[in-house]
Each structure stands twice: as structure tokens, then as C-alpha cells.
TrEMBL record:
SUPFAM superfamilies recorded: RING/U-box, WD40 repeat-like
The keyword Zinc appears for this protein: yes
Name of the protein in its database record: RING-type domain-containing protein
Tagged with keyword Zinc-finger: yes
A Gene Ontology BP annotation from the UniProt entry: endosomal vesicle fusion
Family membership noted in the UniProt record: Belongs to the VPS8 family.
Length: 1383
């Protein structure tokens, strides 16, 4: 086959046609253009591909047809220049994608996208009314608009006092009033229709109110002298009673108007509901009931909502006025214009009135509920928004329309507070009425009249009626409504946002969308309407997708395109239950596009697997199966077909495909559900396995074997495969058929000369254990009748015959069989029979000493047999003997455990290489958990002692811990035995005392006496001398003298020094460490290799650090002379090493010694005076002959240390002085602070302390602020003669308060306790009254400026109080109690 032919054949496969069919195509019929020369493969591969501009395939991942512009749909193509640019960009992107971007797995079940742009509002300009407003001044001299009311008809008031009435078609019907009326009463400031729209009330800026008949244009009533002259009518509203209206003027008063007929004339009456002198009302809104439902309880009450400066009020006017709710307002929003609006919300079967209150950025919702005899106002919720609200209206029970101060319209959901849309009102300036006046008077309580910032009031510019909001601007009128659900979808479709349109439709379908208009309340009707609309959108979506498909022939491009468009269509059809659309019109539209059809088939996979799609038309199903077969995705069919309705399948097609590709699930499903045949799948699948080569398990046979075992298990237990249940009337028949099939002696299609029972033999060979588990599960469901017992016995006989008469089964399989038999016999209660000789044969087979292969497998099989109850069929001694012969130690353990011979099990663990490391764990478990008798415990202990050496090798620490904790009484015997083997003894003791183990076993170590500790120290010094010090630091059970002797004998210097230091022999410990240091340095004197010198210096450095630490540690307990005797020998040795060591020092050695000397000097400066160190250095003979430069750095280091310590000392002293100074100043300020009484009266007699007649002239003031007459306090605290003369505050003396009393004797002789006479007290009171504040600080400041004893009252200034003042008295004294001293 040529390359061109291969290319054509490949394309034919993708297009769903075969090569012969492609050769028979008619070029003219399919409009294929003719070419002069056929292209070669090389020219095709190198051709510069240009995509059609209308069909860009490189779309974003979240593709919806919104990327296709409306202009493209209308024009069909771009301009030539634009087309070349787009094609060049597409070609460049295609090349980069083909070379760099790997294939991305496409999503077959995409989620619906989020709805990002959903415009719920429709804003329409009332052109007729707007035109009339613009031309009103020229035609009728009506002036500009000032107010509006809507009730089917529209009324617009003007600044010249004229009233324009428009019908629903925006035709001007009436022009009421005149310019003269406007000149007399001012502009119209308020309008309102009655319920049926036949009457209109008109309020003017100068307080006049008129009532007109809308039908005839006749003026019915002139209402004057209700609103005071100069006040404007701000709000004028009819109530639910057409004969009652309410009026709110600019001063804040509220009036009630009553319309009457008297003697054939129309009269009126009024009275004030709320007077502005008591509190100003800023907004009023009466409740007006809808026509349905009639007879609501609120109809008899005339509810009225009002907002004052401080409160929100709901007033019931009938039968008598009363306030049923009052709630305070938020002070932060006090300067914002409030708004009120009523609506009815359904709660259960009854609709109750709900009040919305807005002020500033907050919206509060209240509902009035009517009980049997009471009215309850409940606050539903409060919304806090991000903008200030100027006006608002209910547009639906669940939706509010708000207008902010920037004149933007917001649609807000009532429940969630979500801002659904924000609409900018371009070039519309809302008409605003008069602003509220301000006042500077502020009475108490709710009658406060506070200044209010002038803001726009639009009460008469925003009107609601019939679900529409009318907005009155200075030059136009606009009506804002909610779009219907279809309009919202159509707007998204028009912008080609199909993904968002479908997502929004799903919200409508599930009733989760907000502000929905036009859908019925019935759930099924709503879903049907939405689904039908979705079907229309999907057809348009598919048609547009097909029309915009990239050019034919580029299969990968087309496939990528449809993988981004078709899945969304399939998902929506299934979500909205529009299968007839998916497999009807959509399928027909895609029939001519093989690539699109293939994508459609593949998109169905996740929906079928999830059970969302179970029925597909037969023709579509046939094409789908063919597509999956052509694309090599037959394994997916194996998963999908069992989820489908069998009536939609082409059984012949599916069976043929299943047999060809070994689709087990599909084959079983078709035969079970389509033909009620449960036998053929077993025959075909197991027969195929039986005909395969024995012992060979290809991957496909493994998969088939696993599935057939599950299938047989389901059939024998009454379950359908792969899910579901078998009908009850067929369960027994299916079980019988499957058993009969399995036990067939010969099977058609399998060579009869082979061994019998091929099905059972094949399944046993495949997986013996699982097949036997399937049979065991089936036998549990069998009824225990004679027929079931016979069948049970027959199956066991067949199994024995098949497995014991064949050499194809392994020991493990034989063991599984006899395990199965043992369990069945135990459950059968003597109903089954198996020759015991067979069990002996099985035992001989498993315990054959000549067979050394598969040892672990044979042992496991025998062990499972024993656990299943096989011990009843064997002689115990023979079984144990055979198990020991073939080293089946786990079997031996099982037998010993049955006989409670636990000591024998220890040997089983130690002899078993695979479990030897578990021996110690077993010992611990037996000792701690088993209920051992005394005899068993002795035997177990002896076994442990006999194998002690081997156990110590396994784990010395665990073994020693075990012995110490559980066999402590035998420790001396063990130690005596181990004395003969020093290595074994060390291992045992090391298991207990090992110092490198964390945490160290203090508990175990304390169980042994000092002999064992010293013995271990001896062994440790011999084997690991570096660990001796660690052991000595951990243990405290040894004798120090013996330990010193041991370490001295073995020359373990660090351990010896530690022991001497702990005994208080500081000099001895120092000498030991010095000797070790000298010995270490002596090893490299005379000079050796550089490497050896470096190692020695490193070791010396480590030893020196230990010496320095030792000296520093002990210096704190020594006097100065002892410190010098400790430090200076070390310094002398390092400064003159040549005198202490034998031999010459190398240059490297000398440099190293200098470094060591520096470290010693740094360490000793804390404990030895610096001058002593410096003098020692100067007297050293080494540096007395001109080598002063060598110790220059040492001296500088000493000086630097001195300067640092001096600076540190000075800084610390300064800080301490500052802290002490601050503390003293704080204490002095607390002690000398002045006190002021908190009350004007004595705390005991309740008389003013200035009135001293008969009570003495002395008062006592405590730090708590309470003041008493001295006589009152003495009479209350000292009633007995023998009591101590201590003073304490009468009110504050309590057990939990630490008040410090003061005696009157101490007060008399203390110069700091000053007294007040009558004139001084009077002057103090006068001073306090003038300043209205008892300022003790100012009084004491004045006192501090005057001489304390030489004050001449004649020389003081003029008496500003008209009497002798406190500052003018020479005998002025304050009797002050000191502040309490708190511990």
C-alpha cells in the first residue's frame, strides 16, 4: 500500500466510512473541486494551512459560543485585510501548539459555568410622558416636574402648581389646576392616588391640599389650615380606608385627614397625630392592603409606620391609636434620609405585612404577625450594604430595588442580601423635594430636635405599582422592571453566552435563581417550561456550533473544536431530562459530521457510568457501539453496557463484540438480562480458560478468572452481576443451573479424553482458595434439607476426586482443600462424610521429608488446616513428630500452645530462622499475659535460663530487663553462672547498665545491688573505658572508694577525676586531669609527623576544655589562694611546656600551646584578679629576656576584658539607680497625693460635713473618698473602752479589702494630717460650687504656693467669695488619711 493510500484510509476511519466506500464517492454529488495534479504526501505535510475566519478552532478552555461576534453572524466573513491577519495569527498559534503543547485530556462531563453577567433589570424611558414634560412649559406653561404618583395611570405635578394626568398609554388626558393656583399655593410637593385610582390628593409647598376626581377632572375638596402656614406638605398618603389619609409636613408633624359627606356636600376633618413640638417625624408610610386575600386582620387596624429622629414606630390607629412597636435608630445614620415601604410576605398559609426600613447603608426588615388576640412585630433580618440608600421600593416579595445617593439602582435579594445588579441611570437627575429644616433646640427624650444635614428627599420621585418602579427625572420618566426569566435567557443567548445561559436555566430549573419573574409556582410546570426553553437554546447552540465548525479534512482541529462544544450540550440534555432532543434533533444535526458524532458518543460515557443515562435508542446505541469498536475503546463498552437497558442493545452485535474482545461484563449482562441465560457465560468464559495451555495465566485470563469467580459467587447467593438482584422467582433455578453446570463431567467444546469436571478443575487451578471461598459462601445459604446435603456431599466428593487424583496442584492448594473440608465438616454436624484416610494422606503429602521445595507454602497450608479443625483427624504425637522432622516450627507452636507447653515454644522461635528475632517479644507476651501455673512458670523460667546466651545475642537489653523484672529472685544464680564467662556476663550487665541508651533504665538498675554495679564498672573499664564516666554519672548504687580503686587500676582518668571531685578531693582530681594532659602532649615530643602532632593537639584541646570547665566549676567553692593554686599551675605548664615535657617542641607544637594558653587566660579572668594574672605573666622567666611581644595579645585581651567588665558594672549601676529613683518617686507621689471626698455628706450621720454644730469641727477623709465626722466615726468604730483606737473607713472595712486604719492620736501629732475649721470648709464648698468640680489638684497647687505657717490674712487679695476663704485662713489644715498600702 502506498503512502497516499494509507493517508486516505486513515481519514476514512475517522469519517466513519471504509476505503471501498470512499472510492465510490461522487465528486460532483459532494461538490468536491477538481485538481489538475494529485497532491503528494510531502506537499500535504508541508502545506501552509489557513483556517476559515468563521471557524477559529483555537478557542479558550471555557468555550461558549459567546466568543463568536454578532457581526460575524450577520456579515458571514471579515474584510480581506482582517482575514489575512487573523489567519496568520491562527497559523502561528497552531504551529506552536503542535510543537510545544502536549495533548490535554478533554472533559466529557463539564460542569456548568458560573453565571457572571445576568442582567435582571429592564429600564425603559416613558417617551410619551418625557416628551410632554419637556414641552409642558411651552404648550401649557406647566413648569418643571416636582412630584409623581402611579396607579395604572400616571400623575405628574409641576412647579407651577399644575397637575398632568396620563393614561397607561402615556397620553395626556387631563391638565388640572392653573398658574394662578400655583402662584397662590406654590409648587406641587406631594401626590397620591386612592386604591382604585379615581381620586388623587395633591399637596402644595405652602401647605394647601386639594382632592381631584381623576375621571372628570373636578376639584372635590380644598383642605386648608391643616398644615401651618409656611410648612410644605412632604408626604401625603391615602390609607387602606379611602376616607382616611395621612399627611406629613416639613416641620415633622403628622396629621390624619377624614373625608366625609354632609348634607350632599363633600367635607373633611383633621386632627394631629404627632406634633413636631414633641418630636419630629421624618417619614410616614401607611399600610395599604392588596385586593387578595380579602378579610385580612390588618384591615381593621389601619397600621401606620413612622420614623422620628430617634425611633422607628409602628402605630395602630383603630380602634384607638396605640404604638405596637418601637425600636431605636442607629446614631451613626442619624443624618441620612429614612425610607419606609410595606409589602406582604407569605408565611405558611397566611400572608402578613412586612415593613422595610432603610436609613444610610442599612436595611431592616420587620414582619407584623397576627395571633388570636395579639399583634407581634418580629425583626426578620438586617442588611448592611456598601452604599448609602436614598430611596427604595419592594419590587417583589423577595426582591428590593434601592436607589443610592449617586442615583444608581440596585436590585437586592431579601434573604441573602446579594446585590443582583447595579444599573447606572445615565442623564437622569431625580427630582428632589424640600430638605428637612434644622433646629438648635434639643428637648429631652425622644423629643430631641437635632440639626439634620440637608440631603435630597425623593419620596415623590420614586413610585412602585404592579411590579414596576417609575423614576421621575427633571427631563424624563423611566420605568424599571424585572426581566422575565425568558428575557434574561434571551439576552445571554443574544450575546452568544450559551454556557452562562444554560447555567442560569439550571438555576431556574432547580429554583435557586434570584428575582425570577414569569415562572409558575408548581414545580413540575416550572421544570417543563424551563426544559422546553433549554431545548430551543440547545438546538440553536448545536446549529451554530456545526455552522462554525472548522474546515473539513483537518480532523484533529475538528475534534478539538467539538470536544469543547458538544459536552456542554450533552450534559444539559441529561440534566434537563431532554433525551428526546439529544437523540432526536441534536443527533440528526450531527449525523453528517462523523467527528462530532464520535465526540457525542464519548461524552455519554460518564453519564452512563453514573447511572444518569440508562436508555438510548437502539439505532443510536448500535452506532455508538460501532464507534467505540472502531476507536479501540472496547474496554469502556465492558463498563457501560451493564448500566444500559438491555432492550436498547443489538444483542448480536454486543455478543459478537464481547466474544471477540473478551468483554466479560457485557457478555454476562446480555445473556442474563436479555436471554435469562446464566449458564452460557460460564461455559464460554471458563471453557476458554480450560482450553488454554495448562499452567499459563495470561493477563486476560487473570481478568476473566477474577470476574467469573465473582459472577459465580453472585449467582449462588442470589445477586445479579455486576449489580442488582436476581428476581425472587428465579433464584433457586439459577443456583441449580450454576451448580449443575459446574459439576458437569464433560463439556461441549472441550476434549472428552481429558480429565473429568473441566470447569471445577479449571477454577481450582486458577485460584483454589477463592473458588473454595465461593463454594463455602454458597453452602451457607443452602437449606439444610436432604437434597441440599446430597448436593453438598457430591461437591465435596468431586473436589477430592479432582485434586487428589491429579498432580497439577501444589501443596498450598491441597492444604486449602483440606482446610475447606475441615470447616465444612465442622458445620455439617455429621451430615457429611469424608474418609479420614484422606486427611492422613494429605498430612503425609505436606510433611514429606524428601520434598524440600515450597517449605513455607506447605507449612502454611498445614497450619490453616489445623486452625480449621484438622487436629480432630490426626494423632497428636504423630503430627508433632512429623512437624519436627520437617521443621514446621509454627505447627509445633500451635500444638504446644494447645497443650500449654509454653516452654517448648521458646525453642520453636529460636530454631526458626524466619521468626528468631520475634523470640523476645513472645517471651514478654507469655510472661505478661498468659495465666501460667506455678509449674508452667518454673518450666518457662528454666527454658529461658538454658537459652540465655542466645537470647543475649538477640537483644541484651531486652533479655536483661526481662530477667530483672520477672525472675528477680534468680538473678544471683544467673550471675554466679555467668561468672565463668566474662563476655557473657558483660553482655548481661551491659543490657541493664548501658549508659548510651536513652532513656537510661533507672528502674531496672535499681533492682541490682552495688556489687553488680561495681562489677559492671570493672568490665566497662576493660572493654569500653570511654563509657565509664557516662555510667558513673547515671548510676548511684556503687561505692565511691571501690569505684576510685577500679578506675585508678585501669587508668580511666576522666572517670577517676569525676569520682575524686564528687568526694571533694579537688586537688586530686586536678592532678589526675593534669597528668592525662601531660601524657597526651608527651606523645608528640620529640617531634613526630605533622598529622600525629595535629591529632595530639586536638586531643589536648579537648582535655584542656574539660580542665577549664573543672576549674570553673570548683572555683566558686574555693577561696582566692586555693583558686590561684588551681589555675596558676595550669597556666605555668602551658606557658613553659618545655620544662614539663621531655624533649624539644616543634614550631607547630609551640603555636598550638599559645592558643591553649589564650583559652586558659579567658577562662580564669572571671575567678582570678586581672592584676594577679598580669603580674604572673611579667614574672615569668620566659618573657624576661626580650620576648614581651609574644604575650602582647594576651595582655591586650586582659585589658579588653577589664574594660568590658568595668563598662558593664557602670551600666548596671546606673540602671539600678534609675529604677530605685523611679520607685521612690512613685512611692512619694502615691503617699503625698491629695484626696477629695466623693460625697457631700458624712457616711454615718448623712449630714453635710460642713454643718458641724454639735458634732465638732474635725472631719476624717479616707483614700477611698468617703468622708466622716470624727465624732461619728469614733462612736461607730470604738464602742468599747478596751478596743484599740484604730480608724478605718466605716463603709469599706471588709475581709477582702486591705484598708489601713489610722488612729486619731497619730492624726493629732502628725504634721501631715491637716484639719478643716468651719470657715475653711465653707470656703471649700464655695470654691467647689463656683468651678462645679471638686478639683483637689488646683487646691493643693494653691496651697503649695503659700507659706505654711506665716500666712497673714490681712495681706491676701480681695475675697472673691464674700467671706473668709480656705486660702485666707492661717490655721488651715486638712485631716487626710494616707493611701492604702497594698501588699
Amino acid at each position: 500500500m502506498s503512502e497516499n493510500e494509507e493517508e486516505v484510509h486513515s481519514s476514512g476511519l475517522f469519517l466513519g466510512i471504509t476505503l471501498p466506500e470512499a472510492e465510490e464517492l461522487d465528486d460532483q454529488e459532494f461538490d468536491i473541486p477538481q485538481v489538475d495534479t494529485a497532491p503528494t504526501l510531502e506537499s500535504i505535510l508541508n502545506e501552509d494551512s489557513l483556517l476559515d475566519v468563521e471557524s477559529s478552532s483555537f478557542l479558550p478552555d471555557d468555550f461558549t459560543l459567546s466568543t463568536l461576534e454578532v457581526e460575524e453572524l450577520e456579515e458571514g466573513s471579515l474584510q480581506p485585510q482582517e482575514e489575512l491577519e487573523v489567519e496568520a495569527e491562527v497559523e502561528e498559534v497552531e504551529e506552536e501548539t503542535a510543537t510545544t503543547t502536549p495533548a490535554v485530556q478533554w472533559i466529557k462531563d463539564p460542569p456548568l459555568p458560573a453565571v457572571e453577567q445576568d442582567e435582571v433589570l429592564s429600564c425603559v424611558t416613558q417617551k410619551g410622558i418625557s416628551a410632554q414634560i419637556l414641552s409642558a412649559v411651552g404648550r401649557v406653561e406647566g413648569g418643571g416636574p416636582t412630584a409623581m404618583a402611579v396607579r395604572g395611570i400616571i400623575a405628574v405635578g409641576t412647579s407651577t402648581g399644575q397637575l398632568l394626568i396620563f393614561d397607561s398609554s402615556q397620553v395626556l388626558k387631563l391638565c388640572l389646576g392653573s398658574q394662578a393656583l400655583g402662584a397662590q399655593h406654590g409648587p406641587i410637593s406631594a401626590l397620591d392616588f386612592n386604591s382604585d385610582g379615581t381620586r388623587i390628593l395633591c399637596g402644595f409647598a405652602r401647605g394647601q391640599i386639594l382632592q381631584w376626581d381623576v375621571e372628570s377632572g373636578k376639584q372635590l375638596r380644598t383642605i386648608s389650615n391643616v398644615v401651618p402656614v409656611g410648612n410644605a406638605v412632604v408626604i401625603l398618603k391615602f390609607t387602606d380606608d379611602p376616607t382616611v389619609a395621612v399627611c406629613n409636613d416639613s416641620s415633622g408633624s403628622v396629621y390624619e385627614l377624614h373625608f366625609k359627606r354632609s348634607l350632599g356636600g363633600k367635607t373633611w376633618d383633621s386632627h394631629c397625630l404627632f406634633n413636631s413640638e414633641k418630636g419630629r417625624v421624618r417619614c410616614v408610610e401607611p399600610l395599604r392592603l392588596p385586593d387578595e386575600p380579602p378579610g385580612h386582620p390588618a384591615a381593621q387596624l389601619l397600621l401606620l409606620a413612622m420614623v422620628s429622629l430617634r425611633k422607628l414606630l409602628i402605630v395602630c390607629q383603630r380602634p384607638e391609636p396605640r404604638v405596637i412597636h418601637a425600636s431605636p435608630l442607629v446614631k451613626a445614620n442619624g443624618d441620612c434620609v429614612p425610607s419606609l415601604c410595606w409589602h406582604f410576605l407569605r408565611s405558611g398559609s397566611q400572608a402578613d405585612p412586612a415593613l422595610a426600613f432603610c436609613q444610610g447603608p442599612s436595611v431592616s426588615l420587620y414582619q407584623v404577625k397576627f395571633a388570636s388576640e395579639s399583634i407581634l412585630v418580629v425583626k426578620l433580618r438586617e442588611l448592611n450594604l456598601q452604599y448609602e440608600i436614598m430611596n427604595f421600593k419592594w419590587i417583589r416579595p423577595s426582591t428590593l430595588m434601592l436607589v443610592d445617593t449617586s442615583e444608581r439602582v440596585h436590585v437586592v435579594d431579601r434573604d441573602s442580601g446579594e446585590d443582583l445588579q447595579e444599573l447606572e441611570l445615565e442623564s437622569l437627575v431625580l427630582v428632589s423635594t424640600s430638605t428637612l429644616p434644622t433646629s438648635s433646640q434639643a428637648p429631652e427624650g425622644d423629643n430631641v430636635t437635632e440639626p439634620v444635614e440637608c440631603k435630597k428627599i425623593t419620596y415623590q420621585s420614586v413610585c412602585a405599582h404592579g411590579g414596576a418602579i417609575s423614576l421621575l427625572g427633571t427631563r424624563s420618566v423611566r420605568m424599571v422592571t424585572l426581566k422575565t426569566w425568558e428575557e434574561r435567557l434571551d439576552s445571554l443567548v443574544k450575546e452568544q453566552q450559551y454556557g452562562q445561559a444554560l447555567a442560569l436555566a439550571w438555576k431556574f430549573f432547580e429554583r435557586t435563581a434570584k428575582a425570577v419573574v414569569g415562572l409558575p409556582a408548581d414545580k413540575q410546570m416550572r421544570r417543563d417550561m424551563v426544559a422546553n426553553k433549554v431545548a430551543e437554546m440547545l438546538l440553536a447552540y448545536v446549529e451554530l456550533s456545526v455552522r462554525r465548525c472548522p474546515e473539513q479534512g483537518k480532523l484533529q482541529v475538528m475534534e478539538d473544536y467539538f470536544q469543547k462544544t458538544i459536552p456542554l450540550c450533552v450534559t444539559c440534555c441529561i440534566k434537563f431530562n431532554k433525551m428526546e432532543v439529544l437523540f432526536g434533533e441534536v443527533y440528526e444535526k450531527l449525523t453528517h459530521h462523523a467527528v462530532a458524532l464520535g465526540v457525542l458518543f464519548e461524552c455519554l460515557q460518564p453519564h452512563i457510568s453514573a447511572g444518569r443515562l440508562t436508555s438510548i435508542p437502539p439505532l443510536v446505541m448500535k452506532d455508538m457501539v460501532g464507534h467505540y469498536e472502531d476507536q479501540g475503546m472496547t474496554q469502556l463498552l465492558d463498563d457501560l453496557i451493564p448500566h444500559l437497558d438491555v432492550m436498547t442493545l443489538d444483542l448480536h452485535q454486543v455478543v459478537s463484540l464481547s466474544r471477540q474482545h473478551k468483554l466479560c461484563d457485557a457478555l454476562i449482562f446480555v445473556f442474563n438480562k436479555g436471554m435469562n441465560d446464566y449458564i452460557t457465560p460460564i461455559e464460554e468464559l471458563v471453557g476458554g480458560m480450560a482450553r488454554a495451555s495448562p499452567g499459563v495465566k495470561p493477563d486476560d485470563h487473570v481478568k476473566v478468572g477474577n470476574k467469573i469467580l465473582v459472577y459465580i459467587s453472585c449467582c449462588l447467593t442470589g445477586q445479579a452481576y455486576p449489580f442488582g438482584v436476581i428476581p425472587d422467582d428465579m433464584v433457586q433455578a439459577v443456583k441449580s443451573q450454576v451448580f449443575t453446570c459446574l459439576t458437569s463431567v464433560q463439556v461441549k467444546g472441550i476434549d472428552s479424553t481429558k480429565e473429568p469436571y473441566p470447569f471445577i478443575r479449571t477454577l481450582l487451578q486458577y485460584n483454589t482458595r477463592e473458588f473454595l471461598n465461593v463454594l463455602a459462601l454458597a453452602f451457607e445459604d443452602l437449606e439444610q434439607d436432604q437434597q441440599a446435603i446430597e448436593f453438598h456431599q457430591r461437591m465435596i466428593d468431586i473436589l477430592l476426586q479432582v485434586m487428589l487424583e491429579s498432580t497439577d496442584f501444589s501443596p498450598s492448594q491441597i492444604g486449602s482443600l483440606f482446610t475447606f473440608l475441615a470447616r465444612q465438616l465442622a458445620k455439617a454436624e455429621d451430615h457429611l462424610f469424608v474418609n479420614r484416610q484422606l486427611f492422613h494422606q494429605a498430612l503425609d503429602f505436606l510433611c514429606n521429608p524428601e520434598d524440600t521445595s515450597q517449605h513455607a507454602e506447605r507449612q502454611q497450608a498445614l497450619l490453616e488446616l489445623l486452625h480449621a479443625g484438622g487436629t480432630a483427624y490426626f494423632e497428636e504425637n504423630k503430627l508433632l513428630s512429623m512437624a519436627e522432622t520437617v521443621q514446621f516450627f509454627q505447627v509445633c507452636e500451635f500444638i504446644y500452645e494447645q497443650k500449654r507447653l509454653y516452654h517448648r515454644i521458646v525453642a520453636c522461635y529460636l530454631k526458626d530462622p524466619s521468626r528468631k528475632d520475634q523470640a523476645l517479644q513472645y517471651l514478654h507476651e507469655v510472661i505478661t499475659s498468659a495465666d501460667l501455673s506455678e509449674e508452667e512458670r518454673v518450666l518457662f523460667q528454666n527454658e529461658v535460663f538454658c537459652n540465655l546466651q542466645e537470647l543475649l545475642v538477640l537483644g541484651a537489653r531486652e533479655t536483661a530487663s526481662l530477667v530483672l523484672r520477672h525472675f528477680q529472685d534468680s538473678v544471683p544464680l544467673i550471675m554466679e553462672t555467668l561468672q565463668q564467662d566474662a563476655k557473657l556476663l558483660f553482655e548481661f550487665l551491659h543490657g541493664v547498665f548501658n549508659p548510651r541508651v536513652e532513656p537510661w533504665p533507672f528502674k531496672d538498675a535499681s533492682l541490682l545491688g552495688h556489687d553488680f554495679h561495681e562489677n559492671y564498672l570493672e568490665l566497662l573499664c576493660q572493654n569500653h573505658p570511654s563509657w565509664a564516666l557516662d555510667f558513673l554519672k547515671l548510676s548511684d548504687m556503687y561505692r565511691p572508694e571501690e569505684a576510685v580503686e577500679i578506675t585508678r587500676r585501669h587508668q580511666v582518668h576522666d572517670a577517676l577525676a569525676y569520682l575524686l571531685e564528687s568526694q571533694g578531693n579537688i586537688q586530686g582530681a586536678f592532678d589526675v586531669l593534669m597528668e592525662k594532659l601531660k601524657a597526651t602532649l608527651q606523645t608528640v615530643v620529640p617531634p613526630t609527623s605533622t598529622e600525629e602532632t595535629g591529632d595530639a593537639l586536638q586531643a589536648a584541646h579537648t582535655l584542656l576544655r574539660d580542665l577549664i570547665a573543672f576549674c570553673q566549676r570548683t572555683s566558686s567553692t574555693l577561696d582566692s589562694k586555693q583558686r590561684e593554686e588551681l589555675w596558676f599551675p595550669l597556666l605555668d605548664f602551658l606557658m613553659s611546656p618545655s620544662e614539663k615535657l621531655e624533649g624539644l617542641l616543634s614550631d607547630e607544637m609551640e603555636r598550638g600551646m599559645k592558643e591553649l594558653t589564650k583559652e586558659v587566660l579567658d577562662g580564669m579572668t572571671t575567678y582570678i584578679p586581672l592584676m594577679e594574672i598580669l603580674q604572673r605573666l611579667m614574672q615569668d622567666p620566659v618573657y624576661s629576656v626580650g620576648k614581651y611581644g609574644e604575650i602582647k595579645t594576651l595582655i591586650f585581651g586582659i585589658v579588653d576584658a577589664y574594660i568590658y567588665e568595668k563598662t558593664l558594672l557602670e551600666a548596671t549601676s546606673n540602671l539600678l539607680s534609675q529604677d530605685l529613683h523611679w520607685s521612690l518617686c512613685s512611692l512619694r507621689a502615691a503617699v503625698t497625693r491629695g484626696l477629695a471626698p466623693v460625697h457631700k455628706r458624712c457616711g454615718i450621720c448623712s449630714q453635710q460635713y460642713t454643718r458641724t454644730a454639735g458634732l465638732g469641727s474635725r472631719v476624717v477623709l479616707f483614700s477611698c473618698g468617703h468622708i466622716y465626722h470624727q465624732a461619728c466615726l469614733q462612736g461607730s468604730l470604738h464602742q468599747g473602752e478596751g478596743q484599740p483606737e484604730d480608724w478605718a473607713c466605716f463603709k469599706c472595712q471588709a475581709p477582702n479589702k486591705k484598708w489601713t486604719p489610722i488612729t486619731h492620736k497619730q492624726a493629732a501629732r502628725d504634721s501631715q494630717c491637716l484639719e478643716l475649721d468651719a470657715s475653711q470648709i465653707a470656703a471649700s464648698d464655695c470654691l467647689r460650687r463656683v468651678f462645679k468640680n471638686p478639683s483637689r489638684i488646683s487646691i493643693l497647687m494653691d496651697l503649695s504656693r503659700q507659706p505654711s505657717t506665716s500666712v497673714d490674712s490681712s495681706k491676701l487679695g480681695t475675697d472673691i467669695f464674700g467671706q473668709a476663704g480656705i486660702l485666707e485662713s492661717a490655721d488651715f489644715k486638712l485631716n487626710l488619711a494616707p493611701p492604702p498600702l497594698i501588699d
